[in-house]
Amino acid sequence: MEPVETLALFDREMREHARPGGPGVRVERVGAVVRQTGGADDWNGVVWSAPGLSPADARAEIAAQIEHYTALGIGGFEWKRYAHDGPASLGELLTAAGFEAEPTEALLVAPVADLATGVRLPEGVRLEPVTDAAGVELMVRAHEAAFGTDGSRLRHQALAGLDGPPGTFVAVVALAGDEPVSSARMELHPGTGFAGLWGGGTAKPWRGRGIYRALVAHRSRLAAELGYRHLQVDATDRSAPILRRLGFSTLSTTTPYVYRTTP
């Protein structure tokens, strides 16, 4: 499949016809956008906007989403803007409406059949599946050590994923002895050909030893066993070079525009 065809498929299956990202979350098409709405610790925001959106229509949709999420009192939401989304001025319109742009990430996709699935770990490191609350706590500890940020939202989302429909969420933690040093998760989307890779952060003392690659290979194997055709990643500048070497290609870029409804 050519990159332009893969991107069109991604837009259709993962954005225009997005599935809810957890229990108690709803996805709806309203006007010219598709949005997800949940609780304060869920991901809330716009995942798709109609092609050919005019600047005037974009301003109207932006105002409508601000009104919607502000009325819920959930603190804030995100408009996930892709580089190929129209109008060309969408980023400027979002900024003018009070959104703040966060760092741009690369939309990377790879055919599952082309990816290595052999897991090679440093001596003394093992992978453990996350299947319960205790595993989630290990995952959160690894996340906080890797990124230096609070893992409360990850805790909520991982627990929700474990409680969700079977076959839609996979998480794994890398342990050096009893110390969690890296973790990652995969969100599976039944009815589509895509599975999404998330997380993958490794504590600084353990970087450069192949743990990140092992976590990708582990999830690639699971995706292949479950019949998924493509793996998708929103990659930072740190992880994108590694993923490209593993066989991922850049289809677009995505920039989170965040609107805070409360100070």
UniProtKB/TrEMBL annotation:
<protein>
    <submittedName>
        <fullName>GNAT family N-acetyltransferase</fullName>
        <ecNumber>2.3.1.-</ecNumber>
    </submittedName>
</protein>
<dbReference type="InterPro" id="IPR000182">
    <property type="entry name" value="GNAT_dom"/>
</dbReference>
<dbReference type="InterPro" id="IPR016181">
    <property type="entry name" value="Acyl_CoA_acyltransferase"/>
</dbReference>
<feature type="domain" description="N-acetyltransferase">
    <location>
        <begin position="125"/>
        <end position="263"/>
    </location>
</feature>
<keyword id="KW-0808">Transferase</keyword>
<dbReference type="Pfam" id="PF00583">
    <property type="entry name" value="Acetyltransf_1"/>
</dbReference>
<dbReference type="GO" id="GO:0016746">
    <property type="term" value="F:acyltransferase activity"/>
</dbReference>
<keyword id="KW-0012">Acyltransferase</keyword>
